[in-house]
């Protein structure tokens, strides 16, 4: 179901408008099961998102979801699901972060909705969002900043071993 | 001592106090915690804390077969478990390319709308308690909710955690008297809505308490990613059932209820009116319900999906419930992200609350209708 | 030593007073238990539940079981609490209520002492209990308690004035402050006929004085989680409960004595004392029932609405009532004018309420809000 840029099946989608809005940014389109997916390099992703929001014929003013996928050796994908409340179309934006540099600029400057979603992604995957206004943990304990539960290398059964120290009551630690 | 009367220019040194509400406060609807900075009775700042109910449903889904994940979805959204299951099974069906028989889809629609009714009843009851009617609204609402749950129990043997939707259809056929029972439940629900309407909406104090409180403009609501009745109350007619239809929603007639002011009263009223729409939808579904198979004829014993990804969104009672599923070709999802409507709605809490009285903070939180298990997952 | 007659026996005054006080306190405890049971049962029926059913037939022993449980509970005091004020506060709440019973006329001639300034005495003593709430709220070292205590005081001060002024207006008509005399003077026509507005204002102010719904913001369980009571447990908490229901009882007796003719109307003094007590009981029970009904069906007001209602609506109307009563008495106008004025006043009150409801509230702290960075970015 993947296809290369410029393939004929994308012309019926919103790809031409997206391509115009993202001129100057290297974009790879791909057709997902329901929505168009575009990949933007991580340095340009926030610029691209802002352009997508500002483009009049696209007007992606609604951030549905923001999350990440751990592809183990191939880095971590940060995924943005966009929606336009006026034009009623969807777009998935992806950017790949290499394992050596898990940072990306924050999208809170584009949509405030990204605030908590980025906090969750940061604590679950260890992705750092540069310039985030409130970089605390969201769901995890406040001091849990060295282990990232949704990464694939996070063990399921040995959690007790990792968290045991400092979590138990003082009298139980001896 | 110089003078008892202080000079006019003198200002007392005052200090804001911090009030910690929750996670055990009676009106934080579960284990939500917010720290209010208050100046007298006026809220200066709100700092929400969530995560007390985080159980790692997403991680667990990644370790289990596609079919085993359904049970976790029930637990992420226990007030509208059918809606949560629906998003999950639809995501798997979309990835695997499974066609669902018509009868199964109609029954799914009926159950989802009934679940929306029961969830909104829960909201009305709890919201009445927030406003302060000492549980009367709660018992009124629970009478109807119990009727609906009795019906669910007859169908799938459980009152809250149904696990009745399966990939490709339903677990088993509904009971023989399904149509009669649904009609019966609808009749009682209609009476219950009228009762609650009389108890709350037409009460002067209720109106005085809720009007103009927690106002959020449409542009801000969209920017914060709000959805569902909380967004529609601000006047944005955004309903996944109508805009991006799934199941057989295009074949039934219903109105998308919107408010005008985006205050607590509108959010309440939107939910109340939506319940009538749900009843309308269920009635139309019952007319269209035909005998037939409820699972596809050929289903492989081992469910594998081709590599790909899909983001399925459905309209749950509290807003858009999305499941983003990524497959790498195995028999379990590589990544299963649950997009929670409450989480996004809750982000706007600070925006809505600051500047209002402490008692209104409780109302505003109640009007978002949060379910903490969905926020924390 | 002066002597007095009680139940046909001559005895010293002090002994007579002592016996009467004991009878009243005992009766009050029983009545409070009955009221708690009654409230639970009545509200239960309003909410389509059974209420207590397990203890004794129809659960009538529920209050006794609760009392035993509360006495057996551990008496806790928070570590940060101010020990003296914390423990004194409950006395400041229930002693003023108890001493009010001295002047309450249960039937004609049936009071512990018929003070000439009985009404004044009653109002003066019962308003002290607001102080107790402030003590309890402050001393508990709990922010919910403090919030609740402050609310209770603000509310108590605000509603004290309409309460006093409406009762004063009635006292003008009866030209007496002696509760027994006011009651006996209504043998032919109860005061509610001349003061319908006064009665409604009295009832509203009474509910607020009692911290009962819809004015229970001080103890509202959905906001302050119990308010001043929050840190009290066991026997101390039961004292709160005792004071609350005793206060409800005393106020409804006073209300029915002053406005509904008490045991005097409609049968006058000829009726035997037993029947008079029954009549009084029925009248006060009606007032208590309405208070419970309100509690089961009314949402809670907000602090600014509550204060605004007292200062901007009730107070001008109460003072106007005094003024009009004065005119009618001084110029010897027919009393029917008061009825007409009262009905017009009720219409005015209703109009004021509807107008207030139709006007949505703004953000009181909007100025503070506009200064934050969040508002600037939006």
Mean pLDDT of chain C: 83
Q: Please state the average pLDDT score of chain A.
A: 79
Which CATH class of chain A?
Answer: Alpha Beta
CATH topology of chain A: Beta Polymerase, domain 2
Strand content of chain A is: 15-25%
Side by side, the strands of the main sheet of chain A go 1-2-5-4-3
Category by helix and strand content of chain A: alpha/beta
H-E string of chain A: HEEHEEEEHEH
Q: What kind of sheet is the major sheet of chain A?
A: 5 strands, mixed
Residue share in helix of chain A: 10-25%
The side-by-side strand order for the widest beta sheet of chain C comes to: 1-2
Cα radius of gyration of chain C in angstroms: 22 Å
The number of helices of chain A is: 4
Fourth-tier CATH superfamily name of chain A: NADH:ubiquinone oxidoreductase Nqo5 subunit
Helix run count of chain C:
15
Tell me the total number of β-strands of chain A.
7
What keywords describe this structure?
heterotrimer, B: 377 residues, Cytochrome-c3 Hydrogenase, chain B, three-stranded antiparallel β-sheet, 8 strands, 47% helix, C: 378 residues, mainly alpha, 66% helix, disordered C terminus
Describe the protein's topology.
The complex is a heterotrimer of chains A (174), B (377) and C (378).
Chain A: H1 15-21, E1 28-31, E2 36-39, H2 45-54, E3 62-70, E4 76-83, E5 90-97, E6 103-105, H3 114-125, E7 128-130, H4 159-167
Parallel strand pairs in A: 2-5, 6-7
Antiparallel strand pairs in A: 1-2, 3-4, 4-5
Chain B: E1 17-21, E2 33-39, E3 42-49, H1 57-62, H2 70-76, H3 81-96, H4 102-131, H5 136-156, E4 165-166, E5 169-170, H6 178-201, H7 204-210, H8 218-223, H9 229-232, H10 240-243, H11 264-288, E6 308-316, E7 319-327, E8 335-339, H12 341-347, H13 349-353, H14 358-368, H15 372-376
Antiparallel strand pairs in B: 1-2, 2-3, 4-5, 6-7, 7-8
Chain C: E1 3-6, E2 9-12, H1 13-46, H2 62-72, H3 83-100, H4 118-126, H5 129-139, H6 143-174, H7 179-184, H8 191-194, H9 196-209, H10 234-258, H11 273-297, H12 303-330, H13 336-358, H14 366-370, H15 373-377
Antiparallel strand pairs in C: 1-2
Helix pairs in contact in C: 1-10, 1-11, 2-10, 3-4, 3-5, 3-10, 5-6, 6-9, 6-12, 9-12, 9-13, 10-11, 12-13
